[in-house]
Design goal:
This protein is of the alpha/beta class. It starts with a helix and ends with a strand. The longest helix has 26 residues. The chain is built from 28 helices and 25 strands. A hairpin with a 2-residue loop joins β2 and β3. Strands 1, 4, 5, 6, 9, 10, 11, 12 and 13 form a 9-stranded mixed sheet that branches. A 7-stranded parallel barrel has the order 18-19-21-22-23-24-25. Strands 14-15-16-17 form a 4-stranded antiparallel sheet, with helices on one face. About 40% of the residues lie in helices and about 15% in strands.
Length: about 775
C-alpha cells in the first residue's frame, strides 16, 4: 500500500514538472492506475522474488520519470528512446545536467535507497502472501472506465501524447518499426526548391567573391545582449562596435533552428539549409548521406575548407560527419595546445589565436581562398566563469543566477571576438576575409519556471519563445559601405542562400529550403521542432505555439510586438500547415537520401520511379557445392562475392555448416578477415532463431547476413546485431499483400526471389531501397 501511495504522489509531481497542459487529471489518473495495477499484479505472484520485482519496477518507473523531467526542463518535450545513442556524451555536458537538478527532480529518486534499505533490513522476515484483490479490481475497473471515457469525449490523441506509458510505448514502437513516412514529394516541390538556389542580383551580391570566409558559431549567443547596457556597462562592446561599422550588416530578427543535436544541428542546418533530424542528432542520422552544402560548394570552387572545434572530435559524431559535409580538414582538441580550458573545451582566446596562426600559415603557402568554420565553447551553460574573468558588476538580485553568470560569460566571449578581428588584422588576413558571426542557440531557457520568471522580470514582459530563440546574425565585409540592420525574419536555414549571394555563387547541384533574407521579399517564417513543437512557427508578426498534446485548437499565439494573445487561431492555420509541409519535405529528402540521386543525375530525377538510396538490382547468392577452403577460394577467384552457407545444430548443440563439414565456422571467420569484400549469407536448416543467434555469438563472422523464413524471426535477428536480414518468403508461402505489409513495416529488410519480380506493388516497394537476392546454380 505504501508503494502505491508513493507512485500516486510521484505521478502528481511528474505531471506538474512536465507541464501537462490539457486533460491533466486524465493523464494523472491513467499513469497512476497503470502503475498501481502493475505493482498489484507483481504482488499477486506467488514468488519469493516478488518484493525485489516490485522494487525493481518502482525504481525503473522513478528513473523514467526523472529522465523525462530533466529532459523536459531542457528541451520542453519528452525524450525518445533513439537518444540512447547519445548516452556516451552525457559526461561532456555534466555541468549542464547539474544545473537542471532541483528539489522536484531529486524527489523522484530520493526515496529509492530508503525503500531498498528497509527491504534488505526486513528480508529475513517471512513474507506474507495475503492476496487482497480489492485494490487490483478497483484499479482495473477505474482504468477501463477512464479509457472508455477518454474515447467517448474524443481526447485519446491528447492524452496519449502526454501520458507516460502511452507516449513511451508509442515512441518505442515507432523507433523499432520506423515512423510512417509517405511519398509526399512532387516534381513541383523539386522545382520550388531549385528556385531557392537561384542567384539573383540584389543587395550585396558578389561582394565576397573570391574572398576568404570565416563563420563563427558563438556558443549561446542570444540576441538580447546586443546593444544591452547593464548597470552602465556594455555587455557586448566588441560586437556593438562591429555592428556599427560601415562594412557590417546586422540581422536582428534571426532565429535558431535546431533538432536533437542542439549545437551540432545548428551547424548542420546552417551549412545545408535543411531541417534537422528529430530522431537523433543529424550528424549521426545522415552521416552516410550525400550533401551539397556550403563547405562542399566552396571546395568545388577552389576553397580550402576547414572546421575548427576545441572539443573531442567524436562529440556529436563530427569527425565522421565532416568528411561528408565537404571539409578538407577538422581541427579538434587534439590539434590545439591547451593552455586553458573554459566552458566545454579550449578557451575562446586560445582557440582564436591558434586558428588564425593556422590560417596565416595556409595563406603563406597557398593562393587559394579558405573557408574556416569555428565553433566556440567558453560561453556554454551553466556559464561558470573563473573569478578572474568576472569583469562585470552584477546587481545583487542577479548574483549566482543564470542571468548574472551568462552576462559574465558572454562578455568574455565578446571580448575574444574583438581579439579574433585584431589577430586577423595583424596577420594580414582581415581585408580579404568575409566574417560571419551568429549564435548557435538560446542561452536561457523558459522551460525552467525560475529562469522564466527571472527573464520576464528583466525584460519587463513575459519571456517567451520569440525572445528565447532570437539569435543575432552579423555579416562583415571589410572595405564595403553596406551598413544596414535587416529585420526580415529568418533562421539558420536561411544562412546558406544568404551567404551564397554575398560570395557570388549559385548552388548548381543541390537543393535549399532557406531564402536569401538580404533580398527575399516574400512571406517567410521559422518552423522550430524543439522547445516549440512541430507545427509551431514564428513569422514577422506573430508566434504560434502548438499545444503539448498536438491539438491545433489547444494551441496559443501572440503578437510579437504587442505581446497580446491571439484569440482567432484559424487565421494562423495556413502557416501552421505550411510549416509541417516544409519539415515533411525536408525529412523525406534526407531520410531517402534523395540528394544523392538528384546530384548524381545532374538535377534530373524520376520521382515516380525513385527508389531511395540503392539501385533496384538482383544480387546473386552463390551456394558452395562443397564446404572446403579450396572450393571457397576457387569460387572467390571466379569473381563471386556473395556466398551462401546453410547451418544446423549438431548433437552437441553447436553450430556447424551443412554438408561434408570440412570447413568450420572458425575457419570461415578467419578467411573473411582477409576477404573483406565478401558478403556471407547464413541460413539455418531448422530452428533458425536459435541457430543463427548461436552462429553470431560463437564466431566473429564480420558482415554476415542472416536469412530467415519466418516474419517473426526478423526482430530477433536485428536484436542480435545482424546488420542485414534477408527474408526467404517461399517456405511459408507468404502472398504479395502480406509481403508488402511486412516490407512497409520493416523497410530495412531484404528479399529473396526465385524469378524476376512481376508484382507491380512489390516492385514499387522495392524501389524504395529494398535489396533483392536470388540463388544461382
Amino acid at each position: 500500500m505504501i508503494m502505491n501511495i508513493l507512485v500516486i504522489l510521484k505521478t502528481i509531481l511528474y505531471v506538474n514538472i512536465t507541464e501537462i497542459q490539457f486533460n491533466k487529471f486524465l493523464v494523472f489518473l491513467l499513469t497512476s492506475l497503470i502503475s498501481v495495477i502493475i505493482l498489484e499484479l507483481i504482488k499477486k505472484r506467488k514468488s519469493r522474488h516478488r518484493g525485489k520485482m516490485r522494487i525493481g519496477f518502482y525504481s525503473l518507473l522513478s528513473l523514467i520519470m526523472f529522465v523525462d523531467a530533466m529532459y523536459f526542463m531542457q528541451f520542453s518535450t519528452l525524450p525518445s528512446i533513439s537518444l540512447l545513442k547519445q548516452f556516451n556524451q552525457l559526461s561532456t555536458v555534466g555541468d549542464s545536467i547539474k544545473y537542471l537538478l532541483n528539489i522536484k527532480n531529486i524527489l523522484l529518486l530520493i526515496d529509492i535507497p530508503v525503500i531498498i534499505y528497509f527491504y534488505i533490513k526486513n528480508r529475513d522476515e517471512k513474507e506474507k502472501y495475503e492476496i487482497n484483490n480489492i485494490t487490483l479490481k478497483v484499479s482495473t475497473v477505474l482504468l477501463a472506465l477512464s479509457l472508455i471515457g477518454i474515447i467517448l469525449i474524443g481526447e485519446s490523441e491528447s492524452v496519449m501524447s502526454q501520458e507516460l506509458y502511452t507516449y513511451h510505448l508509442t515512441d518505442i514502437v515507432d523507433t523499432l518499426l520506423g515512423r510512417e513516412e509517405t511519398d509526399i514529394i512532387s516534381d513541383e516541390d523539386i522545382r520550388e526548391l531549385e528556385m531557392r538556389t537561384q542567384l539573383e542580383q540584389g543587395k550585396f551580391t558578389g561582394l565576397g567573391k573570391d574572398k576568404n570566409l570565416i563563420s563563427v558559431q558563438v556558443e549561446a549567443l542570444q540576441n538580447f545582449v546586443i546593444g544591452l547596457e547593464y548597470e552602465g556597462q556594455e555587455i557586448t562592446p566588441e560586437l556593438n562596435r562591429l555592428i556599427q561599422d560601415q562594412s557590417t550588416v546586422y540581422y536582428d530578427n534571426y532565429y535558431q533552428l535546431v533538432g536533437r543535436g542542439n549545437t551540432s544541428d545548428a551547424e548542420f542546418v546552417t551549412h545545408n539549409s535543411f531541417h534537422p533530424s528529430m530522431e537523433e542528432h543529424s550528424y549521426s542520422r545522415f552521416e552516410k548521406n550525400e550533401f551539397y552544402g556550403l563547405p562542399m560548394l566552396l571546395r568545388d570552387n577552389g576553397y580550402k575548407t576547414v572546421a575548427m572545434h576545441g572539443n573531442d572530435g567524436e562529440y556529436w559524431n563530427r569527425r565522421a560527419a565532416y568528411k561528408g559535409q565537404g571539409f578538407d580538414e577538422f581541427l579538434d582538441i587534439q590539434y590545439y595546445q591547451v593552455d586553458e580550458l573554459l566552458g566545454m573545451g579550449v578557451s575562446d582566446k586560445d582557440f582564436f589565436e591558434q586558428n588564425v596562426q593556422y590560417l596565416s600559415q595556409y595563406k603563406r603557402e597557398n593562393e587559394n581562398p579558405f573557408y574556416a568554420f569555428m565553433a566556440t565553447l567558453t560561453s556554454h551553460t551553466p556559464y561558470n566563469m573563473p573569478e578572474s574573468y568576472k569583469i562585470l558588476d552584477i546587481r545583487e538580485e542577479h548574483v549566482d543566477t543564470i542571468l548574472g553568470n551568462y552576462l559574465q560569460s558572454i562578455h568574455y566571449a565578446d571580448k575574444q571576438i574583438g581579439f579574433l578581428i585584431e589577430e586577423l588584422k595583424s596577420e594580414g588576413l582581415y581585408e580579404d576575409t568575409v566574417i560571419a558571426l551568429y549564435g548557435d542557440h538560446y542561452a536561457i531557457s523558459l522551460t525552467n519556471e525560475e529562469d522564466r520568471d527571472l527573464m520576464s522580470d528583466f525584460f519587463g514582459y513575459e519571456y517567451d519563445y520569440d525572445e528565447m530563440m532570437n539569435i543575432p546574425l552579423v555579416l562583415h565585409i571589410p572595405g564595403e559601405e553596406i551598413h544596414e540592420t535587416i529585420s526580415e525574419i529568418g533562421s539558420q536555414i536561411d544562412f546558406f542562400p544568404t551567404i551564397l549571394n554575398i560570395m557570388g555563387y549559385k548552388n548548381e547541384k543541390g537543393l535549399l529550403f532557406g531564402r536569401d533574407i538580404s533580398n527575399y521579399k516574400g512571406y517567410n517564417f521559422v518552423s522550430p521542432q524543439t522547445y516549440m513543437r512541430k507545427g509551431s512557427f514564428i513569422d514577422g508578426e506573430n508566434t504560434f505555439v502548438i499545444s503539448r498534446d498536438g491539438i491545433f485548437q489547444h494551441s496559443r499565439a501572440f503578437n510579437n510586438r504587442t505581446r497580446e494573445e491571439i484569440e482567432d487561431l484559424e487565421q494562423l492555420r495556413k502557416t501552421h500547415e505550411m510549416a509541417i509541409r516544409e519539415i515533411n519535405l525536408s525529412d523525406y529528402i534526407l531520410n531517402q537520401n534523395l540528394l544523392k540521386e538528384y546530384i548524381g543525375n545532374g538535377g534530373n530525377i524520376d520521382l515516380e520511379n525513385f527508389k531511395g538510396d540503392s539501385e533496384l538490382e538482383i544480387l546473386k547468392i552463390y551456394e558452395l557445392k562443397k564446404n572446403s577452403l579450396e572450393e571457397l577460394n576457387r569460387v572467390y577467384e571466379s569473381g563471386e562475392r556473395v556466398i551462401g552457407f546453410d547451418l544446423k545444430l549438431n548433437s552437441e548443440d553447436q553450430v556447424v555448416l551443412v554438408g561434408e563439414n570440412v570447413l568450420t565456422l572458425d575457419e570461415l571467420s578467419q578467411w573473411l578477415v582477409t576477404h573483406r569484400d565478401v558478403k556471407v549469407i547464413l541460413k539455418a536448416a531448422e530452428d533458425e532463431v536459435e541457430t543463427l543467434t548461436k552462429a553470431y555469438d560463437s564466431s566473429e563472422l564480420e558482415g554476415a547476413v542472416a536469412m530467415i523464413r519466418d516474419f517473426g524471426s526478423y526482430l530477433e535477428m536485428t536484436n542480435n546485431r545482424y546488420g542485414e536480414v534477408i527474408l526467404d518468403p517461399f517456405e511459408k508461402e507468404y502472398n504479395s499483400e502480406e509481403l508488402i505489409d511486412f516490407i512497409d513495416r520493416y523497410p530495412s529488410i531484404s528479399i529473396l526471389v526465385d524469378m524476376e519480380i512481376q508484382d507491380k506493388k512489390l516492385e514499387e516497394l522495392t524501389r524504395r531501397g529494398i535489396d533483392i537476392y536470388k540463388y544461382i546454380q
